[in-house]
């Protein structure tokens, strides 16, 4: 019998555990995505020529829907009066239910690509594509995206035609949780204004592209998430950022309608990638992290018909009590349902791996 020294036994133990660990990743952490499938889309004429997607990063559903008591003004107010007016008069709304992990990357992948986070991402990091996947942006004729360098590249670099997706990003050093995150959203809104100014130039190539069909505009608004991490979601910074985003979205919608002459061919989707718990964190399956808002209006979107006076519309439960929205039907969805909704509105192929 060959004697085994202490160091030899230690080496065997290390090698065993390395092989054991590698076998787990080899068996379980393989991409489940299938490529080369036949694309499909709804064959009906699309109601919209263009789609505008707003993602308010880190916004939990109750904080935008419920009335807020303003101690300074000694009154109860709505934090997002413009968006809630769209909910009541022009579109449909509900709660988008996310899945664990409730983080930015898997949330955006679910909403824009239509499938839930690939477990193989565990070994590759979350900012760039661990595997190739299709998305609404990739299927569009062209997409213009504005926002964070942590989010935008994963959809641009993974596009089958990189020139199909344009990105406008602020520098990474802008993402400083020690300060007020409003400035991140200010950059996006200001960049969008400059974008429209360029598109309004006579003979602009950009203008010609913007008047084609099956195009997408994506605005990633990171300020709410930053303020939630820095100041907690019940802070004036977080709640004030919701007010600011509401005004910014209103101004952007007015720019779109003015540029396109109110042609009625623009569909709007407002949602979030994940929520946030009262400690200013997210990632797990707590309801504060998994329940996010969804407000959709514009071309192809049915208006929410209010219920009769005194009656509660379908879809409500204890969560939406106290929101003063009981007259309007609440239509909840799974987060991955948003991608085929957006694809249907502008008549493009469903992302190939959409569940």
TrEMBL record:
It comes from the Eukaryota. This is Glycosyl phosphatidyl inositol anchor synthesis. It comes from Coemansia furcata.
């Amino acid at each position: 019998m060959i004697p085994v020294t202490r160091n030899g036994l230690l080496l065997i133990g290390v090698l065993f555990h390395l092989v054991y660990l590698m076998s787990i990743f080899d068996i379980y952490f393989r991409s489940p995505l299938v490529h080369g499938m036949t694309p499909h889309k709804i064959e009906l004429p699309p109601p919209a020529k263009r789609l505008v997607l707003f993602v308010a990063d880190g916004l939990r559903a109750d904080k935008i829907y419920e009335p807020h008591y303003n101690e300074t003004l000694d009154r109860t107010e709505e934090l997002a009066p413009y968006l809630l007016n769209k909910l009541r008069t022009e579109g449909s709304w509900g709660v988008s239910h996310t899945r664990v992990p409730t983080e930015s990357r898997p949330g955006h992948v679910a909403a824009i690509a239509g499938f839930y986070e690939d477990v193989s991402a565990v070994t590759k990091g979350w900012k760039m594509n661990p595997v190739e996947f299709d998305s609404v942006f990739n299927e569009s004729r062209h997409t213009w995206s504005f926002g964070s360098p942590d989010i935008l590249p994963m959809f641009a670099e993974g596009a089958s035609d990189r020139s199909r997706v344009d990105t406008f990003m602020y520098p990474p050093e802008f993402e400083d949780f020690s300060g007020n995150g409003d400035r991140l959203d200010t950059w996006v809104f200001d960049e969008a204004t400059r974008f429209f100014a360029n598109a309004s130039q006579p003979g602009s190539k950009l203008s010609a592209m913007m008047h084609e069909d099956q195009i997408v505009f994506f605005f990633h608004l990171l300020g709410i998430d930053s303020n939630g991490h820095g100041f907690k979601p019940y802070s004036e910074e977080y709640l004030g950022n919701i007010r600011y985003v509401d005004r910014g979205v209103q101004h952007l919608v007015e720019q779109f309608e003015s540029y396109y002459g109110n042609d009625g061919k623009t569909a709007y989707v407002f949602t979030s990638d994940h929520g946030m718990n009262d400690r200013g964190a997210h990632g797990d399956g707590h309801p504060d992290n998994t329940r996010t808002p969804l407000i959709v209006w514009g071309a192809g979107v049915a208006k929410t018909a209010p219920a009769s006076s005194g009656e509660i519309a379908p879809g409500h439960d204890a969560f939406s009590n106290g929101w003063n929205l009981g007259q309007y039907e609440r239509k909840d969805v799974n987060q991955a349902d948003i991608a085929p909704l957006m694809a249907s509105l502008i008549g493009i192929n469903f992302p190939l791996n959409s569940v």
